[in-house]
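lol forgot to send this yesterday, sorry. struct tokens for the thing we talked abt
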């Protein structure tokens, strides 16, 4: 099953190289014990992610978010007084190469392994980490099957398709939009799973998906005129847009250019500052999307979480640009949650770290709340972000537990 993390879908502004930080000593045998002891004043994280190929579009942003988290943690004394160091290797967006990179990083002494923000490209490397006995993380992957496919030492931290779909459905009902016209790219389970979650809560609440128009955003579809004609005829209350960026942005641009002002609801494929640039600030109205964290308004919206504003500022200072994708703040949030567990006195190795992570509930982190962990994946309280006249605004937060209960 292909469960692409959003950031693969969101946008590729540029393809960047990953910055490798300091290395550390140790052997594969030592690392295989899963020890998190301080070695030469450091704990070493090995990052097996894509610096090249299609996955680099989101893997680089995720690693950069991790780097900002590491800088922040080290500035406060590290993990129980031990500084964190990083070493990385390019997986070239190839699962087989990723497994080899993971082995190489472990041979170099990695004590924690971080793999790609995607099930397909990260699972082989994650299994290497699990088999070797390391705490293994995919900081922004959205798959709910990743953990089951790897094992008890693995955790994926991205907001799941379940929360994204349920939040969209709940918001549509709250706005009394009872007729949905859906555009759907069925090429990714990332979208079809959101569709299932959306319907579960939306239809139970009296809403109806009156029409579904399948599109090929993965294939680069750029003409949506026939779809827009059908929307005009259907006169829905809301259009749900489940497609990749930039195609989903092109759809919204053409929809508004055709004079259709129907509200649009979607997910973090819409979560980029490039959207109003593409659609046009004057046409970027009545757009709403479910997300893990509201970071879009940093430096613009005075109401944004100061901690996320600080993250965005640190990111821009370190890398010369505003966070380009949602994986950047998502990975930052997840590692800050993991850090809370690693700081505990009883955590000394991968097993005790995994137990401490699994026990986390209602954990506040910069920009959001980690509700809990289930089957190795994170359950985040989702937020709805709105875009009107090219300006971003955090609209409402939902409780993940309540959403799942209502969806059931």
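and heres what i got for the seq, position by position
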């Amino acid at each position: 099953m292909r469960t692409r993390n959003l950031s693969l879908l969101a946008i590729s502004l540029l393809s960047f190289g990953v910055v490798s930080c300091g290395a550390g000593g140790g052997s594969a045998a030592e690392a295989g014990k899963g020890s998190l002891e301080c070695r030469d004043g450091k704990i070493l994280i090995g990052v097996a992610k894509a610096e090249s190929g299609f996955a680099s579009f989101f893997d680089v942003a995720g690693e950069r978010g991790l780097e900002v988290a590491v800088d922040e943690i080290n500035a406060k004394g590290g993990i129980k007084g031990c500084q964190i160091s990083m070493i990385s290797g390019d997986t070239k967006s190839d699962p087989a190469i990723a497994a080899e990179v993971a082995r190489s990083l472990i041979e170099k002494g990695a004590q924690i392994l971080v793999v790609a923000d995607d099930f397909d490209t990260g699972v082989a490397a994650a299994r290497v980490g699990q088999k070797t006995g390391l705490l293994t993380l995919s900081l922004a992957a959205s798959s709910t099957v990743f953990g089951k496919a790897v094992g008890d030492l693995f955790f994926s931290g991205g907001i799941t398709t379940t929360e994204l779909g349920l939040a969209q459905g709940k918001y549509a009902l709250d706005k009394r939009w009872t007729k949905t016209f859906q555009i759907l790219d069925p090429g990714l389970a990332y979208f079809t799973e959101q569709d299932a979650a959306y319907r579960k809560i939306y239809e139970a609440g009296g809403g109806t998906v009156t029409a579904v128009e399948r599109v090929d955003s993965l294939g680069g579809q750029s003409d949506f005129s026939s779809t827009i004609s059908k929307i005009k005829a259907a006169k829905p209350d809301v259009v749900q847009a489940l497609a990749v960026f930039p195609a989903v942005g092109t759809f919204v641009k053409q929809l508004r250019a055709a004079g259709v002002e129907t509200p649009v609801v979607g997910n973090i494929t819409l979560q980029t500052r490039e959207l109003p640039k593409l659609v046009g600030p004057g046409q970027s109205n009545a757009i709403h999307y479910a997300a893990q964290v509201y970071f879009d308004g940093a430096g613009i919206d005075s109401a944004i979480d100061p901690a996320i504003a600080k993250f965005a500022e640190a990111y821009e200072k370190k890398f010369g640009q505003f966070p380009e994708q949602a994986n950047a703040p998502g990975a930052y949030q997840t590692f800050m949650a993991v850090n809370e567990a690693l700081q505990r006195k009883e955590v000394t190795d991968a097993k005790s770290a995994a137990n401490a992570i699994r026990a986390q509930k209602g954990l506040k982190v910069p920009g959001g709340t980690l509700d809990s962990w289930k089957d190795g994946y994170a359950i985040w309280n989702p937020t709805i972000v709105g875009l009107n006249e090219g300006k971003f605004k955090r609209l409402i937060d939902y409780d993940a537990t309540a959403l799942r209960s209502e969806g059931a």
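The longest strand covers residues 42-49. anyway ping me if u want another try
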